[in-house]
């Protein structure tokens, strides 16, 4: 994937250029959701945004730069979804983070599919995309570290444990999105999977009494 640098900063101050870039990424998302990954071309995005194709090249340098921005937005959204949202108890934080992971995937099916499926990727990801792609995992690893530090989760390597959790929830979500779930209530089954993971990782004395 191209490492073309985009203009602007992440300071939070929106400039006209940043507004145009955001509008073009909005257009790319719209094309992706409506027509699928193969339809995300510079020309299609330009038409969707009501600009000349050169306007896309001026902002992103190439189709790869546009795709990079689209994937960055997706991973930033996933990171926000799995970040702590006021849960004080480490186990509750881990559980609710897992539930929000599934909700994000189901509410952003097309985006989630290209984030992990590679249908839009071309070449090596840019440094920005690599950092954003690791952001959600870092949030999960922080949840695990917090639980271990509080004595609620069994001691271990937070990175290894986080990888095990992610592998399980990603697999469950991917199967559900592909229509390969056979349980009557996929949400209940997913929640039960989270509880199974949490029980297996929890310090026995920290488990709530039934």
Structure, described:
This protein has 210 residues and is mostly helical. The protein folds into two domains: 13-61, Arc Repressor Mutant, subunit A, CATH 1.10.10; 70-204, Tetracycline Repressor, domain 2, CATH 1.10.357.10. 68% of the residues lie in helices and 0% in strands. The chain contains nine helices and no strands. The radius of gyration is 19 Å and the shape is elongated. The model is unreliable at 1-15 and 206-210 (pLDDT under 50).
Give a brief outline of the structure:
The chain is 68% helix and 0% strand. Helix 2 (42-49) crosses helix 3 (53-60) and helix 5 (90-107) packs antiparallel against helix 9.
Strand portion, in percent?
A: under 5%
- Which series of helices and strands comes N to C? HHHHHHHHH
Average pLDDT works out at: 88
Question: Can you tell me the CATH topology of the largest domain?
Answer: Tetracycline Repressor, domain 2
CATH architecture of the largest domain: Orthogonal Bundle
Instruction: Bin the helical content.
Output: 55-70%
User: Which superfamily, in CATH terms, is the homologous superfamily of the largest domain?
Assistant: Tetracycline Repressor, domain 2
Q: How far is the N terminus from the C terminus? A: 51 Å
> Tell me, what is the CATH class of the largest domain?
Mainly Alpha
How many separate domains?
Answer: 2
> Structural class, please?
mainly alpha
Whole-angstrom Rg: 19 Å
Shape: elongated
């Amino acid at each position: 994937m191209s490492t073309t640098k985009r203009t602007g900063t992440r300071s939070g101050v929106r400039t006209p250029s940043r507004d145009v870039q955001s509008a073009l990424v909005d257009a790319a998302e719209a094309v992706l959701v409506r027509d699928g990954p193969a339809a995300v071309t510079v020309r299609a995005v330009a038409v969707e945004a009501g600009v000349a194709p050169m306007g896309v090249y001026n902002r992103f340098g190439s189709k790869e730069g546009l795709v990079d921005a689209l994937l960055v937005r997706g991973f930033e959204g996933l990171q926000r979804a799995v970040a702590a949202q006021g849960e004080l108890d480490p186990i509750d934080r881990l559980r609710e983070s897992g539930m929000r992971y599934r909700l994000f995937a189901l509410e952003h099916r097309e985006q989630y599919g290209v984030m992990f499926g590679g249908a839009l990727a071309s070449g090596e990801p840019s440094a920005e995309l690599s950092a954003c792609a690791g952001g959600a995992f870092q949030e999960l690893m922080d949840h695990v570290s917090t639980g271990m530090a509080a004595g609620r989760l069994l001691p271990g390597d937070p990175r290894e444990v986080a990888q095990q959790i992610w592998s399980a929830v990603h697999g469950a979500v991917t199967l559900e999105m592909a229509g390969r779930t056979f349980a009557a209530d996929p949400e209940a089954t997913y929640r039960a999977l989270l509880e199974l993971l949490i029980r297996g990782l929890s310090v026995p004395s920290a488990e709530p009494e039934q």
